[in-house]
Design a protein that fits this description.
The protein is mainly β. The protein has one domain. Helix content is about 10%, strand content about 55%. It is built from two helices and ten strands. The radius of gyration is 15 Å and the shape is globular. The protein starts with a helix and ends with a strand. About 25% of the residues are buried.
């Protein structure tokens, strides 16, 4: 049954006639004939600073309102870690000095505070760079850098977080 859910989600993410809900966005790419997509809520800073919103050591729902969902038809590799094809909730954590991206296998996770930690199947470090221009609305992108390589980027305020990945062989 989960393959039917994945197929339905994949069709939904690729369909140009289906729009995201208000305040939601998606980034979709096709690498080696496989779809990789992230759907997320887009919180706005509204004259606030990211630094004032993020509490160190608290797991944060990456996005707003509903879970941020990664759907991938391909297994992905982050450093030495392999992530199987499927659907995942994306979470983030700042420990006071560095950011981590967390992949949780519960793709309908309502709250990061109520998650089953055993479903946190992968945690990878994110590189942080300062940006010149402030991004008021959270923006997540999947960018293909080579035929089998890409970057997930998260931009908000004057920060951009990135994590490279590759299509598993």
């Amino acid at each position: 049954m989960s393959s039917y859910i994945g197929l339905a989600l994949g069709i939904m993410l690729l369909s140009p006639t289906l729009q995201s809900l208000p305040g939601r966005a998606r980034s979709v790419t096709r690498m080696q004939n496989r779809v990789i997509a992230i759907e997320y809520g887009r919180p706005e800073l509204q004259n606030r600073r990211v630094e004032d919103l993020i509490v160190p050591n608290i797991v944060w729902r990456l996005g707003a309102d509903m879970p941020t969902t990664l759907y991938t038809e391909a297994a992905l590799v982050f450093g030495d870690n392999r992530l199987s094809a499927g659907s995942y909730t994306l979470l983030a954590q700042y420990d006071g000095s560095a950011w981590s991206l967390i992949f949780n296998s519960d793709s309908e996770l309502a709250s990061p505070n109520q998650r089953d930690l055993q479903k946190d199947i992968l945690r990878v470090g994110m590189r942080e760079v300062a940006t010149r221009n402030s991004v008021d609305v959270l923006t997540i992108n999947i960018e293909q850098t080579h035929s089998a390589n890409g970057i997930i980027s998260v931009a908000w305020g004057t920060r951009k977080l990135t994590v490279p990945f590759a299509i598993a062989k």
